[in-house]
Structure formats: structure tokens, C-alpha cells
Structure prediction request, 367 residues.
Amino acid sequence: MKLCWLDIRAADGAKEAIVEEAIHQRVDAIVAADPADLEPLPPTVKKVLFPLGRPLPEKLEPADLVIVDPARHGDPAALAHAHAGVEFGRYVEITDAASLDDACRAARHDRWSLLDFRDPTKIPLEIVLAAAAGAEGSIVTRVADVEEAEIVFGVLEHGSDGVMLAPRAPGEATELKAAAVTQAADLSLVELEITGIRRVGMGERACVDTCTNFRLDEGILVGSHSTGMILCCSETHPLPYMPTRPFRVNAGALHSYTLSAEGRTNYLSELSSGGKVLAVDSAGKTRVVTVGRVKIETRPLLAIDAVAPSGVTVNLIVQDDWHVRVLGPGGEVLNVTDLTPGTKVLGYLPVEQRHVGYPIDEFCIEK
Prediction:
């Protein structure tokens, strides 16, 4: 989970509501310019004093952390020596090459660095993150909105340790906390045993092309029913007659379910450019990837039936072709046309039924 700081210095009339929501959502820190605004906060939230453009108050309590501008307030290390029991961090506004160097030094050496990038490009942040690789301090980046926070969290696949957002209205703290979840929860995969393979005629199948290269033992979970899915392999492994397309999963018939972000399912037919789908590897580790496009074309189809150790039955309908693959135990790559009764494949058994893609505990029969 990434750090979420809410800046209430300019919240004005909405301040009370924003703070109440922030505490309820368990944001990591509230940032204020006046120590009095930190007084009523509970111990569950970090109290950050940030007197930018103001002199440092004589009384810093109840602040847990004070972010200072060294040019105005002095060096954070010297201030920490003079004020026992209070942490100090460094504010750096990045506007040119010299200030970028300052940000890199702060990220490498300071316990806390609050960085403010004035230009919209994320290349300076990439440089700071690369320069600070292995450092023990925390980098918090000032962002304009939740959308920018999502981008900052993903820069260089590591992202800033946290962001500071000045909410314009209640509701943004909730959105920011949702964006701070860095990855989907890992899944407990099960070994399914193939019970039958049968040709079912022509139909539309969907290839899901993502904006990410899949790893060798990674794909997406697909199934005809919400109660069971099979791990379909990407086109990462070489085949005769065609180049590899490691960004693609030849996933299945267009009616099939797949897992997307936040535990939701989508029909393959619903996926579109810019959407999200859950990539899963043979150990059950997951990551959310972006859909580039979905290709739906008419092809001969093959139905795969399988059963879990618990007795739950699983069905997957895929294109009837040997270059379509699923993953077996240990990440073994299996051509679907080579599957026979008794073959073991990897799958996942969601415990809830689905309504418009969301899990729900209700009576439902799928055949």
C-alpha cells in the first residue's frame, strides 16, 4: 500500500468534512500549515506540519513530522538535532537541472522527501527514483488529482512511496486510498483434472491484447461460469508459422468470464481499449494490466471440461487450434488440442456468484 497524505492547508470551508473522511479512510497523514489544525487529530494519523512560505513556528507540537524548505527554515538534520522527538523532512520544488540534483540528493539521504514537480513530464521523477534505488528514505510526490496519483504510483514499476493531494471536496480521500492499492490480492490456484474435450462448432472467440508483455508462466483466468476458471497462457512461447505475441492471450469464446481489477469479473466481450484485466502466474501472483484491444473473430471452438478436487466442475470454450494454450502445474505449457482426460491444469474457484460482474452471495445456477 502506498502512502496517502491529504493536504488541508487550502481546504477552507470543506476542511472539517475532508478531515473526517480522511480519518475514516485511514489515510496515512494529514498535512497542515498551522499546528492548531493538527491538535484534534487522533493518533491513528500522522500529523505533518508543512509551513511553506511561512516561518517555522516556535511550537511544533503536536506535529510528528515537519517538512521544511531548507532555503528558508534550515537543514532538516540540524533542525532535528535542535528539536528532539520531532522528525524533519525536506521539501524540494523541481524546476530545472539544479533542483533535480537537489531532489536526487534528498531522496538518497533524507528520511522524508516531499517533491513538487512543476512540469507535467514524469521523466524527472523517473530520474529521482532511479537515483534513490536502495535508499531507506521515503519519497512523497505532490499530485494535482487522483488520476495523477495513479500514474505516480506506477512510474518505473515502483513509483513514489506516497503522494500528497490537496482535495477539492469530500470523496477524494476515498478515491485516493483506492488508487493506493499497488496490486490485486494474490489468488489460491487449484489443480483441475480434465474430464472431457469436445468440438462445439463455430463461434466467436476473443484475443485479449494488453499493453504489457506477459511472463512465461503468466496469463489470464477464463471460464464459462463464474464459479470456475482455467489459467489461459499468453502467446509468449515460440510456435512454428507465426511470431510470438507476448502481450496477447487467445482467451476464449466471447461469453466467457475473466477476472479484472478489484475482484470483479468481465465478459471477454466487454473488454475494450483502456480497460483492466488481471494477469495471473502459475503461483497465483497477480497484477492489473491494461487492455490495448480485443479481437473477436469467428473460429472453430473446443469445449474443455474439468473438475476440481472439491467436486466443482469447470468449463472453458476456446478456439480449436493447437497454438491456443493453458497452463498446468508448475507453469507447464499445454496445447489445448493435446489435452486428454486426466490431464491437470491450473484454475481458480471464486466462492461467490456474480451480478453485473460483482461478487454476491445469492442463489444462482450456471449450466
